[in-house]
What we know:
The complex is a heterotrimer.
Chain A: E1 2-6, E2 9-13, H1 19-25, E3 49-54, E4 65-66, E5 71-72, E6 93-96, H2 100-113, H3 131-139, E7 155-157, E8 162-165, H4 174-182, E9 189-191, E10 198-200, H5 220-224, E11 230-232, E12 245-250, E13 259-265, E14 268-274, H6 287-290, E15 306-309, E16 312-315, H7 318-331, E17 337-342, H8 347-360, E18 365-369, E19 377-379, E20 382-384, H9 392-399, E21 406-408, H10 410-418, E22 422-426, H11 436-444, E23 447-452, H12 457-461, E24 464-467, E25 476-479, E26 484-488, H13 501-511, H14 521-531, H15 540-543, E27 548-549
Parallel strand pairs in A: 1-6, 17-18, 17-22, 18-21, 22-23, 23-24
Antiparallel strand pairs in A: 1-2, 3-4, 3-5, 3-6, 7-8, 8-11, 9-10, 12-13, 13-14, 15-16, 15-24, 19-20, 25-26, 26-27
Helix pairs in contact in A: 2-3, 8-9, 8-13, 8-14, 10-11
Chain B: H1 16-26, H2 36-47, H3 52-62, H4 66-75, E1 87-92, H5 95-98, H6 102-113, E2 133-138, E3 150-152, E4 155-157, H7 162-171
Parallel strand pairs in B: 1-2
Antiparallel strand pairs in B: 1-3, 3-4
Helix pairs in contact in B: 2-3, 3-4
Chain C: H1 20-25, H2 30-38, H3 41-51, H4 63-68, E1 78-83, H5 92-99, H6 101-115, E2 119-124, H7 129-144, E3 160-165, H8 175-182, E4 206-210, H9 211-229, E5 234-237, E6 244-247, E7 251-258, E8 264-269, H10 274-280, E9 289-293, E10 302-303, H11 313-318, E11 327-332, H12 337-351, H13 357-374, E12 382-390, E13 396-406, H14 407-419, E14 420-421, E15 426-427, H15 433-447, H16 449-458, H17 466-469, H18 477-481, H19 488-491
Parallel strand pairs in C: 1-2, 1-4, 2-3, 7-11
Antiparallel strand pairs in C: 5-6, 7-8, 9-10, 9-11, 12-13, 14-15
Helix pairs in contact in C: 2-6, 2-9, 3-6, 3-9, 5-6, 5-7, 6-9, 12-13, 12-15, 13-14, 13-15, 14-15
Amino acid sequence: MAFIKLNDLEIEVEDGTNIVEAARQNGIEVPHYCYHPGLTRPANCRMCLIETYGTPPGAPPGTIAPDRQLATGCTTTVRTAPPERKYEEKFDAIIRTDSPRVVKAREDILEFLLVHHPLDCPVCDQAGECDLQDFSHRHGRDKSRYVEVKNVPPKKDLGPDVLLYSTRCIVCTRCVRFCQEVSGTGELGLINRGSHDEIDIPRSHEGNPIQVLDNKLAGNVVDICPVGALISKDFLFKSRPWFMDKEDSICTGCSVGCNITVEYKEDGVYRVKPRFHEDINQHWMCDDGRLGYHYVNRDDRLQLPLKKVDDEQTTTQWADAINTIKEKLGEVEAEDIVVIGSAQGTNEDNYVLQQFAHDVLNTTQLGLFGQLPGEEHKYPQFTIESDKNPNTAGARTILGSANGNVVLEGEDLWQKVASAKVVYLVSGVPDRKLQDEEKAALENVEFLIVQDVLPSEITELADVVLPGTTFAEKDGTFTNSTGWVQRIRKTVDPPGEAQVDWQITQQLAKQLGSEINYSFAGEISIAISENVQGYEEATHQNIGDAGVKLA
Amino acid sequence: MSDEIIQLETPFQFNEENMKKVDELIGRYPIKEAAMLPTLHLAQKQAGYISPAVMKHVADLLEVTVMKVKDVVTFYPMFFEEPVGEYVIRVCQTLPCALRDCKVVLDHLKEKLGIDVASETNLAKGTTEDGKYTLMKVECLASCDVAPVIMINDDLHKNLTPEKVDEILNNL
Amino acid sequence: MVQQKRILYEHLDVPNINTFDVYRQHDGYKRFEKAIAEYQPDDVSKMVMDSGLKGRGGAGFSTGLKWSFVPKDIEPRYLCCNADESEPGTFSNRYVLEKNPHLLIEGILICCYAMGIETTYVYIRGEFTLGKKMLDAALEEAYEQGYLGENIKDSGINVNIYSHPGAGAYICGEETGLIESLEGKRGQPRNKPPFPAVEGVFMKPTVVQNVETLCNLPFIVDKGVEWYTEMGPIYGDARFDPPKPDPNTGTKLYCISGDVNEPGVYELELGLTCSELIEVAGGLRGEEVKAVIPGGSSAPILTHYELDTRLDFTSLTLAKSMLGSGGIIVMNETRNIVDCLLNIMKFYAHESCGQCTPCRWGTPWVRDIVQRIADGEGRQEKITRPKFGIAEGGRWGDTGETEEIYEDLDLLESVANNIANVDTMTWNTICVFGIAVSWPAVSYMRKFRPEFEATIREGKLTTLSVEEATVPPEENYAFQQRIIPKEMSELG
C-alpha cells in the first residue's frame, strides 16, 4: 500500500492505483473523458490534470514544491517509495487536485471541448447523464469566448444499433479503443486529422461503408461514450434518463450472468445497461442481452390464466385454473407426474417448485427446461456463452436438492414426458421454438400445465396456461456458469393478473393442503441456504450487490 | 443500415514486382503493420489512389483491420482517396515561400490550368477535366533557400516565377 | 565577417560525393573504421558525452545524456534517424540526404557501434523523394561494400539500415510521433514518460537522432573531443556553484531564408549573433530588419532590438526563444507581422495531429482569430486587464496598473496560452506542438502589438514602419527578462 497526501487527505491506496481512481475511492472527483478503467489510457482529453509535488532540480533535499508541468491523473500511478525518497518522511506522493492551476486548467480544457460542441442538450439523449454537461457545470466557465464558426461534421449510421452524432463527439477515442481492445474487432477508428478528426467505420471516399459496427459487443460503445455522440437506436428519443427508475439486476441472455441495471418506468422496461463486476463481466455486456429485454414489454404477454375447453383455450379466473389442476392431480399417481423447472427461473422459483414436487406431489421426477443452446462468441476480453439461460447451474442444483430427486434433461426428459400423464412445465423462456421430439412428447401428455410469459408453441399445447413473470418483475437469484449467485430485483409490475412463478406454485401447493408459505423471495433464499449444499452463504442479505461465489 | 456495404468486385492486387517489394518491406520490421506507409506509397504508385479495394488488400497483407488502413490514409495528406491528375503539382505556401511571392506562382497556376486548389477531402475540384493536372497547396517543402518552390510529382522546381512555371509545364 | 567552418558540409559540393568511391576518397568510412579499431563502444559514448554535442533536431538535448538513459540489457535496441525535416525554415538535412548520404550512414554506424544497435530506421519525410532515392542508392552501395549487413568488415558488428518514408505529416518529426508513424499508425505523439530511450519503437529502447546530430559523430570520433569543444561557446550555468559547464559546442548548419540576399545553409560555429548571420548570408534584402525567426517557425520571434542575441541553444533559450532546428527566417520592413503570423498559424492548424483536446481545437481557434484580424474583422471592443511590465524592483511582472487591450488580442494571447503557457513554460498538451503554436502566437502579438492594433483599428492589414510596429525594449517581455549567459572563461 502506498501512503499519499491527496489534497488535505492522508490516505492509503494500493500500489499501482492511478490518481483518478485513488481520488474516486476517497470521494474526490477528478473529471475525465478519455480515461475508462476498462481501457488503455491515451491521456488525450487532458481533463484529469492534477498537480504533483516533488523536489525541484538543484534544490536542497527535503524541499517540496509543485512540479512545473501538471500531470494527467489517469496515467499518474502511485507506488510505495523507498524510505529515502519519501516526502515529509512518510508520503509516497503528494498530489493536489484542487490547486488554482488545476482549477484553471480544467476550465481551459472545458472551454476547448465546448468550442465545436453544439448546444443541443434539449434534444440530446445523453442530457442528464452527460459528463460534458456535468463537468461543465461543476468545473467549467459560465460562458464561451468562441465566436468563430463551429465544425459541423455529419451524423453517421455506424451499425445496426449505433448512431454517431459527430458534432457532439469530443474525440476521446474510448469507442475506438473498445473495439480494438475488448471486442478486438476494430471497426471504429479516426478519420482525418486535427480539428477535422472524426470517429467512423471504414468507408469509401463516397461514404459507403466497407465494414459496419456489428460485433455483438457494439452497444457498449454507447455506454462508454462520455457525451451524446454515440447513441443507441433502440433508446433514441425514448426517455429522459431522469424520468426512469433504476434497479440492479442480472442479464438473462446467457449463463455468463452479466451484472446489469434495468431502467424502467411504470409502463415498462426502457433500457438495460451493464454494471461493473470485476470477476464476471467487467464493465461490459453483449447486445443480445442488452436488447433482449423487449419481450418484457410485449403487448401479447400472458395476463390471465387460460384453460382448454373443447380443444379451445379461453381465459379464466385464477381460482378456476387452480381448481382444475387440483382436480386433475387428484386423479393420477405420483409416478405419472413430471414437474419441470426452468433455467430462466430464479433459484427461488425452482426451490419452491421442487418442494412442491417432492413434498406435496411426492414425485421425484423432475426436469429442467430452458432456451435452446446458441452460439458461443469469444472476444479478447469477453465471452458470450452458448448456454442461453441465466440459471442453468442454479436450477439444476436446486431442483435436485431434495432427497431422491432426479433432474432429467434433454432426450431423457422428453422420453419421460412422453409417458407421463400430467406434466407441470414452468417455462418462462421467451420465443422458445419446440423441436420435433419435444413437441411430440408434449402432445402425448394427457394433461399439460404450462406456466409461461408469452404465448408460444408450448402454451398452445397446454390444458392450463398460468401467466408467470419475467426477470424484470420479480426478486430472486440466479447462479451463473462460474458459480456466482447474484440478485435480480423487481422493476415493473407483472402485466394483468400474471404472478411471480414461485407464488403460483405455492398457491397450488396450498390448494393441495401444503403448509409451504413464503412471503417474499428472501425468505426462500434462507431456506435454500439451509437445505441446498453449497448455498450456505447465498442468502439475499449476503449476496447484496456483489454476489456470492459458491464454495 | 441505410447504406449497402460495398462489395469489392474487382479487388486490387499488387503486381508481381511490387508484391516482391512488399514482402521485402514487411521483412524489415518485427511487426507487419509497420510496413504500412511504404506499402501504401507503393500501392498508390500502382493504383493511382487508395481505393477501398487497395485498403482491403493492404489490410490483408499487413494483417490489420481495414479501419486501421483508412485511419492512416486519412491522417497523411500524401495519400489520395480519389483519382488525381497525371501531374500532381504541390505548391509550397509556408512563410519562407510566402516571403518570396509563392502566391503569384499559385495564382498563375490556377489561371493557367483553369482550376481551383484541391482540398484534402475534395481533390476533384483541383483537377483538370482532362485528368492531367492536380493543383494543391502543401506545407513547407524544406527548400526555403530556393523559394518559392513547387513539386511536380517527385520533382522539385526552385526559384520560381510565372515565366519559369510556364516553361516547366511546357516541358512536361 | 564570421567565416564559415565547413565540417559536415566540407565535401558537400564534391562531384559524385554521393557515390561510395568518391566518398571513400574523402576519408569515407575511415572514421567508422577508426572507431571500431581504436575505441570500445563505451569510449565512443563517452566522447560524445564529453563533446557536449546537443541534438540538432530542435530540443537541443545532450546527445550523450540521451544515450546514457538507454538500458543496455534490453534487446533489441533501435536507432531511428529523424529525417522528417518539416519545420518551416529548415532545409539542411535535405542537402545531406541528396548530396552526401554516406556521411549519414557513417554517422549511424558509429552510433550503432556505441550503443550496440543492429537495426536503424531512417524516417525520411515523404516529400523527399530525391533524398530517399539517393540514400537508398548509398545504402545499397554500403551493403555491397560490406559496410552494412552482417559482420561488418570482420568486426562482428551487424548493422542494418532501412529507409522509411513518411507521408506528409509535420508531427512525425516529434520523436514519439515518428515512432508511432514508423509502427504504421497515425503519427500521434505518445505520453512521456516512458521516454523512447526506455520504451520506443516496438516498445524497445530507442535512440532517436536528427540527421545533423548523427553527421557530427564521425568528426568527433576522428578529430577528438578537444578539437570539437574548441568550436562554439561553453557557458557556465550560474545557478550552480561552481558554475556548471553548459556546452554549445560544434558547428551548426544554419538555414537562412526570407529577406536576405543569399539564402542557404551556412555551417558556422555555434554562437554567432543574429546580425552576423544575416551578414554572412549576403546581408538584408531590403532597408531594415523588422523581425527574425531564429529557430524554425515555432520559435518566438526576435525584434530588431534583439539581433545581438547569439544563435546558440543556451543564449536563445535565455532570451525566451529557441535555436530549434536552426531555421532562421528574416523579415524586412515591408512585411506585415499579422500576415506572417496568419501564415504560420495556418500551418500549425493544418498540422495539429488532433490527438489531444487543447491542440486539436485550440490551434484552429488561434488561426481563426488571427484570420479575422487579418481580414479586417477584428472586434473594436476593448477590455481592461492588469498591465505587465517592469514592476517593483526592476523585474518583469504585474505592475499593479491596468491597460486597455483589444478583446481579440487578449483572446488570442489567452487561447494560445491555454494550449501552452509561454510564461510558465507549461503545456496542457501531450507533446511540445502546443508550445510551438503558442510561442509564435504570443510572441508576435506581444512584440509587434502596435501592428496588430493598427490592423484592428483600421479594419484592414496595416503595415507600420519598423519603429512603429515594434514595442519598445522596455515593454518587450522577452527583452526585459532575457539573460545573457556568460562563458566559462569569463566566469573564471
